[in-house]
Amino acid sequence: MATLKQVAAHAEVSVQTVSNALNAPHRLRPDTLQRVTRSIELLNYRPNRNARSLRTSAVELIGYCVPSWPDGQAHLVMDQFLHALCTAAETSGRHILLFTAPTGVDGMLVYDDLHARRLVDGFVLSQTETHDPRHGWLKEQQIPFVSFGRVWKESTQPGPWVDVDGAAGCAAAVRHLYETGRRRIGFLSWPKISGLAEDRLSGWRTACRELGLPHDAKLAVRCPEDTIDAGAQATAELLDADQPVDAIVAISDILALGALRELNRRGLRAGIDLGITGFDDSPLASVVSPALTSIRQPMDQIATELIDILTGPATDATGNGDTRPSTERLLEPEVVIRGSSGPG
Amino acid sequence: MATLKQVAAHAEVSVQTVSNALNAPHRLRPDTLQRVTRSIELLNYRPNRNARSLRTSAVELIGYCVPSWPDGQAHLVMDQFLHALCTAAETSGRHILLFTAPTGVDGMLVYDDLHARRLVDGFVLSQTETHDPRHGWLKEQQIPFVSFGRVWKESTQPGPWVDVDGAAGCAAAVRHLYETGRRRIGFLSWPKISGLAEDRLSGWRTACRELGLPHDAKLAVRCPEDTIDAGAQATAELLDADQPVDAIVAISDILALGALRELNRRGLRAGIDLGITGFDDSPLASVVSPALTSIRQPMDQIATELIDILTGPATDATGNGDTRPSTERLLEPEVVIRGSSGPG
DNA sequence: CTGAAAGCGCTTACAG
DNA sequence: CTGAAAGCGCTTACAG
């Protein structure tokens, strides 16, 4: 492996000049730059990142904790998210370092260690939970981070975040179903009350109200778990009611698949007799028939914003200016229309 | 951040002794060790990894290229694999660095760069394809790597690998179905001929032959794509044949889900009227009803073996001893029995 | 525009 | 068992 010194000797300049050729080429005279560049190519020189990091104390590595399954819904799009995150990181010359950690506050030792030993510059958090302790802790330690997902139920959100407007997504799904002629739209939700679920539910409720559609509590079913079975059962309820629904907005693709199955069982046709939509546009959505209309989170944009915020000018690195507003970005999801919600 | 020097001053020893306390504690006298350890704790010292790596030229980081979807089957268990890989890496004091690269030989520039700039010590490869160029290239460059999955159709497999015995898995599924009384077992396969598909198919064929069951070509259907629809259609074929099958071994969970749907549509009960098995034990398997019997790859063991091989004594670092056999580990998958193949 | 020198925080032969 | 010293390969004020 060639070193800076060898390149310098070869190009007959000082190491400083070679370093500048790489990091501040405008400082060199064109002819010098060209000569150095030639030597770099000839010797196939690659700067040693460890040496650079030792000097600059920046590793250009971003930590991401791989969520441990079983977590239900989220991991069906995890590879999409990771791919987007990697790509965004690489665009800014960085990479993603993966690690595992216990959930809750116990895991913070791992985060702290990774940062203290300078394996990473900062963290991207996801799988944010209601009352997630990580954000507050990292902020207190002044360790750079950005969160995908808000910490719900907190009076103040610690630190910067990027999130998708679930309410807007569900509202858009309702409007889409309305436009295809549906007038009684049910909602399939999750069991435990979470900020995420309430957010999406509220979007359904608001849109129905605005369109003059029914939106009473009976139309929103909390499924006991995020499975196809539970989705099918809840769908059966909604179909067997005195006034059956003619469309269903599901809070996840899995539940929507359950709805699809129940329709199938009854000889009803999704997209014709009823409209069905899911959430996440997971790989499953395009694998069923009719394919599932689903609400897609803009993964690439999410990832880009996350990296932008994390690598941008430090929000609060000094500890002063604490009152400065955190960086917060709420992105719009998109309804990907497929067969299950009709031709429109 | 405390440094080695500061700890040394605090403990009133040389930096060398502190370093030894961390890396070779047996060299210190117990009382010295204790004193140093106390100083380390008091100052909350964490060794700077970049400095260490610069010195030792080992970064303790393993590169893994995130596969770009859509790739069909594999990404449903990607998070399981990543989690296992991370855990195994951490057990050996290492971490996973994620990156993206173009497929094929173009991507090798990325691999080379990552290694040359010392961002990683080596690579774990997965999504191995027939005629995958990466293995040969990395071997030639003497860049450490280990592959999850064999390069099929090569006369000699370049470099060490870990793989799962797909044939054994499918054979086990056939035997399991036989034990639950099935006597005419179909096979659902993929469109393009790949080493992976042929391997699994051969397991079905061999087991059927050994049990005296039919295994003619008509019983093995190549689905045009890895979707629920395709699986359902192929299942319909197998059921409408002159001699209908009473069980189906599917090469993927998705295809098995298609089989389940087709049975459902016909009023047939999986696990009672027919036995169905999938492959990969993806999150989907436990989310349907009846839950899907599926062949599970031992992810934790795979990951452990991969890291063991990669971090073990260099197989061929010197370039001599080229004839030494590569490290190769073929692991047994496990049939996870659920409702879709009957109570047994 | 270019160069000589110090230093980032470790580890590792080498002496004592 | 312990210590003084060199060096891993860079970057960065500081002079010239």
TrEMBL record, chains A, B:
InterPro entries: HTH_LacI, LacI/GalR-like_sensor, Lambda_DNA-bd_dom_sf, Peripla_BP_I. This is DNA-binding LacI/PurR family transcriptional regulator. It comes from Kribbella orskensis. GO terms for molecular function: DNA binding. Keywords: DNA-binding, Transcription, Transcription regulation. Residues 2-56 form the HTH lacI-type domain. Signal peptide: none annotated.
